[in-house]
Amino acid sequence: MRGLLVCLVLFWGGMAWAHASEQSFVLLLPTDVYISAGVASVVLTVLLLAVLPARAGEAVFSPVPLVRRPRWAWRHATSLLATGVLAFAVWQGFAGPRTPMENPMPLLLWTVWWVALVSLQGLFGNHWRWTNPWTGVVAVLARWTGIRPLMRYPRRWGYWPAVGLFLVFAAFLLCDPAPADPARLASVVGLYWYAVLFGVLLFGPAFLLRGEMVTVMMRAYGRMGVLAPVRGRLALGLWGWQGVMRGAPPLALAVLMVLLLGTGSFDGLNETFWWMGVIGVNPLEFPGRSAVVVPNLIGLVVANLGLLTVFAACLWLGERIAGTGRRLRAAFCLFAPSILPIALGYHVAHYLPTFLVEVQYVVQMLDDPLSSGAHFLGMDGFYVTTGFFNTQDTVRRIWLSQAGAVVVGHVVAILMAHALAMRDRADRRRAVLGQAPLAVFMVAYTFFGLWLLASPRG
Q1: CA-to-CA dists, residue 443 to 36, 45, 112, 241, 342, angstroms
Q2: Measured on CA atoms in the order 271, 273, 276, 282, is the torsion positive or negative?
Q3: Can you tell me whether residue 66 is helix, strand or coil?
Q4: How far apart are CA 116 and CA 179, in angstroms?
């Protein structure tokens, strides 16, 4: 059985069809062991919360103060540095090599930002405060020119512009025929940067904090980080403690949190043999991304609408069972942050094999960013390897890491949901009853997430 699994890994690992780059590696999990163990872990968490003291879930998320919060005097300087890196990537997108694995533009955007920095934001805390490529430029323009916002950001807009922009981004990531083409990507990123700068100059920082998709998404994931300032001190807590301590997000932001999971799930689903069978494509004779643009767009919309509907239905049913009298909108906003650890866990698991390969291309790019043979890091002769996919021990470690990320994400989500319910309602019995449909949803999604990782894909 083990030999068969390794053969499958080697066979499917060589197939290419990706969204983050032109290359993807898929490891097939041994479903009978990992899915059963993963689901059992989540079920056990649910059962423990049903019998533990009422405040156990909330106590888990109590942060520990570490040191006095340092003064962040250089955040505009690091922002300007991030702007410079982005400008270099856009320039190289037009002037550099045409191969995505050699051009800095797709490597910096899809591998460094989308895979690494988004994961780090959710795992550790809000680094976007320093790596945001707009805040430094806006601060410099304000200081040198004294320019002020021309208009007030419309309050009724809320976070809805960011929701719309995120859906456009998701469509580009998953449905565009060539999302890793350097020149195409440079055009999109460059135009987006200038459009956001114009929005900030027009409406002020409120546009960046509420209307700009990347900043809103990163700040949402920042709620998951283990580090954050509390009362002037840097504090450390379990993943999600910030989401438990903060108030419920507005409806639009809550919807975006659910869309992060729906989009991430379809990100894996659209590569599976099952999905290709649904849209009538032979995965062994894949005709190219341009042939599946419309089916994938439809699938992306259906996946997100379906998840929003199921999540809302579970909350509605839970409120009716518990008899809390809480309106569906209030329940949706209250529990939406508990979706974030699931989305983050699957994001990490889904991209881990690809990242292990593509980060080597990033190192090559840093060694010779202009493809001139300079070798600034002295890495002449460094070659990208996928040899770790050929060793059973390393493949097993990657399997365990992927499955662990999914399971831990669901366990944290259930703990968060319990803590949020107890914070909002002192009646433990009603809180536990109200969570029952949501807990069933999370257990089922654990199975679904592990199945996605284990599914053959093209």
Answers
A1: 11, 10, 31, 21, 11
A2: positive
A3: strand
A4: 18
Name the average pLDDT for the chain: 86
* Cα 387 to Cα 13, 59, 332, 429, distances in angstroms: 11, 44, 46, 53
Q: Which residue has the tokens 């493949």?
A: 395
Lowest mean pLDDT among 34-48, 65-79, 335-349: 34-48
380 burial level (CB within 10 Å; 0-12, 13-18, 19+): exposed
Contact 417, 432 (CB under 8 A): no
Residue 252 confidence class, pLDDT cut points 50, 70, 90: very high
State the helix-helix crossing angle for 75-95 and 135-145, rounded to 10 degrees: 110
Please determine, for residue 51, whether its predicted confidence score (pLDDT) is greater than 80.
no
Residue 53 token pair: 């003291």
Strand ranges (E), 16-122: 64-68
Question: Coil, strand, or helix at residue 159?
Answer: coil
Q: Report CA-CA distances (Å) from 90 to 7, 189, 414.
A: 40, 7, 41
Is the confidence at residue 275, as pLDDT, over 50? yes
In tens, the pLDDT along 77-87 reads 999 999 999 99
Other C-beta atoms lying within 10 Å of the C-beta of residue 292:
22
What single letter denotes the amino acid at residue 169?
F
Q: At what angle do helices 392-424 and 31-51 cross, to 10 degrees?
A: 20
Reply yes or no on whether the pLDDT at 30 is more than 90. no
Cβ-based burial of 116 (10 A; exposed 0-12, middle 13-18, buried ≥19): middle
